[in-house]
Amino acid sequence: xxxxxxxxxxxxLYKGQLRLGKALMKGQYLELSFQSGAYASEWDSAxxxxxxxxxxxxxxxxxxxxxxxxxxxxxxxxxx
Length: 80
Known about the structure:
Elements: E1 10-15, E2 18-26, E3 29-34, H1 37-45, H2 60-63, E4 64-67, E5 74-79
Antiparallel strand pairs: 1-2, 2-3, 3-5, 4-5
């Protein structure tokens, strides 16, 4: 949702017809909401994979820093 996709409101992750997650930019904050805390935990342990697109060759953790949230199904990051 940066550069070429800045007009997109949100991105969704589906498995079949079940929506597993939603990514939404709110100003400088990226909110990831998952169907459950279990799916959020899978996000935490996932490895970042980037396609062969030059402007994507910066790591997520370099661009965003995690922010504490009270919800186990949600992850919030602040853009650097």
